[in-house]
Design brief:
The chain has helices at 11-25, 39-45, 60-76, 91-103, 116-128, 154-173, 191-205, 221-234, 248-258, 273-282, 293-308; strands at 48-53, 79-83, 108-111, 132-136, 147-150, 179-184, 209-215, 238-243, 266-269, 288-290, 318-320, 326-330, 333-335, 340-342. By secondary structure, it is α/β, with parallel strands linked by helices. The protein has 2 domains: 42-151 and 293-336, Rossmann fold (3-Layer(aba) Sandwich), CATH 3.40.50.2300; 154-290, Rossmann fold (3-Layer(aba) Sandwich). The strands form 3 sheets. An 8-stranded mixed sheet has the order 2-1-3-4-5-13-12-11, sandwiched between helices. It starts with 10 loop residues before the first helix and ends in a 10-residue tail after the last strand.
Length: 352
C-alpha cells in the first residue's frame, strides 16, 4: 500500500506566484480605483428645484420678474423653477405655500413677503429642514432668510420719489411747492413700502410740501382707486399723490383722470412702464420710478442657485451674476442697482 507523499514545490514556482499576486490584488498608487466626483462637484451639477413666491400673482410687476427668473433658470440649466403665489396678496396663503414646498423638500424658496411676521415661522421651519431661503423685492425677518435680493436701497427709492415729484411740480407750477401730498401704499404690513415711507418723510419735510395722510388699500386696484378719489375730494389744496406700489399707482392715476384733475394734481410712484404708458402719454403722469423688474427676477434665481451650490456666502463683498455683471454684496444683502425714471421721452423703449 502506497501512502500520500507531500508535494515538493520548486523555488522558481514560488517566485512566480509571488510575482503574480500584485497583478491579482493590486498594489501601489497606480492600481487604486479612480476617485469618484467630490461632494462639491455633485452639488454643482445636480438638478435644483427653486420656488419663486411673489406677494401677489397675476400682476404685471411680478409677471415681469418671473420672465427674468425663467431666463436665468434656462441659462444656468438643471433648474426646475416653480412660480406661484396668492392671487389676492394674502400672506397666510404665502405661508401655506412655503409649508407645502418644505414638505416637498425643494432646494430653495425665494419669498417676497407681504407680511414678514406672518410668513416668518414657515420660512424658519424651511431653513431648519435644510432648505435655502432668501427674500427678494421685499425683505422679511433677517433670521428667517439667508440673503435679501434688493432692487435698491430704501433710502434711494424713497428720496428718488420725492425728488421726482418736486421736479414734476416745478415743471407745472414753478417755484410754488406748497400744498398737500398723500401716499397711497399697499398693505400696512408691507416692509418694503414702510421702509420707503420712512425715507420719504424727512425728504418731504425739506420741500415745503405737507404729507396729509397715508392710505393702505392693500394690493387691490379698486381700493386704490377709491382711496385716491377720497383724498382728491378731502384735500382741496392737494398737489400730488404718490402711488408706491405697482397696483396703487395706476389706481391713483385713474382717480385723477376720472376727477378731471389731470395736470393739476400730479401723480408719481412705482409701477411698470407698460402699466403707466397710457397715463404718461395722456399727461396725467410725468414720471414713473422703478427698476428693471426682469433683471430683479434674473438676479434672484441666479443667487438662489449659487446659494444652493455653495457659491454664494456671507462675507463676500461682490459676486458675479451672469449678464447683470458683478453685484455688490453688503453683509446678507445683494443689490441690483439704481432706480430708473420713465418719462414720455423714454417709456416706449421699455417692455415690461
Amino acid at each position: 500500500m502506497t501512502g500520500c507523499r507531500p508535494r515538493k514545490f520548486h523555488r522558481s514556482v514560488l517566485l512566480v506566484g509571488w510575482a503574480v499576486l500584485p497583478l491579482l490584488f493590486g498594489c501601489g498608487a497606480e492600481s487604486r480605483p479612480a476617485p469618484g466626483p467630490s461632494k462639491a462637484d455633485a452639488d454643482a451639477t445636480r438638478k435644483l428645484t427653486i420656488c419663486l413666491l411673489p406677494k401677489i400673482k397675476g400682476i404685471s410687476y411680478f409677471s415681469s420678474c418671473y420672465r427674468g427668473a425663467q431666463e436665468a433658470a434656462d441659462e444656468l440649466g438643471g433648474i426646475e423653477l416653480i412660480y406661484d403665489g396668492p392671487t389676492d396678496g394674502d400672506p397666510r396663503k404665502q405661508a401655506e405655500m412655503i409649508e407645502q414646498w418644505t414638505a416637498d423638500r425643494v432646494d430653495v424658496i425665494c419669498v417676497s413677503p407681504n407680511a414678514p411676521d406672518v410668513v416668518a415661522k414657515a420660512m424658519q421651519d424651511a431653513r431648519k429642514a435644510g432648505i435655502k431661503v432668501l427674500t427678494w423685492d421685499a425683505d422679511g425677518n433677517p433670521e428667517s432668510r439667508e440673503f435679501f435680493i434688493n432692487q435698491a436701497s430704501a433710502q434711494t427709492i424713497g428720496e428718488s420719489m420725492v425728488r421726482v415729484m418736486v421736479e414734476d411740480l416745478a415743471a407745472v407750477h414753478g417755484s410754488d411747492l406748497t400744498g398737500d401730498v398723500v401716499i397711497v401704499s399697499a398693505d400696512a404690513t408691507a416692509a418694503n413700502q414702510n421702509a420707503w415711507i420712512a425715507a420719504m418723510k424727512p425728504a418731504l419735510e425739506k420741500t415745503g410740501l405737507n404729507l396729509a395722510t397715508i392710505k393702505y388699500p392693500g394690493e387691490n386696484a379698486a381700493n386704490a382707486l377709491a382711496d385716491a378719489k377720497d383724498v382728491i375730494q378731502k384735500y382741496p389744496n392737494l398737489r400730488g399723490i404718490f402711488g408706491i406700489s405697482s397696483v396703487s399707482f395706476p389706481g391713483a392715476a385713474e382717480a385723477v383722470e376720472q376727477s378731471g384733475k389731470s395736470g393739476n394734481v400730479l401723480v408719481t410712484g412705482l409701477s411698470t412702464p407698460n402699466d403707466m404708458k397710457r397715463f404718461v402719454h395722456a399727461g396725467t403722469v410725468r414720471s414713473v420710478v422703478l427698476w428693471n423688474t426682469v433683471d430683479l427676477g434674473y438676479l434672484t434665481v441666479r443667487a438662489a442657485a449659487a446659494l444652493a451650490r455653495g457659491e454664494l456666502k456671507t462675507g463676500m463683498e461682490k459676486w458675479e451674476a451672469g449678464r447683470v455683471g458683478v453685484r455688490p454684496v453688503r453683509g446678507d444683502e445683494i443689490l441690483l442697482g439704481d432706480i430708473l425714471v420713465f418719462t414720455k421721452a423714454n417709456i416706449d423703449q421699455y417692455d415690461f
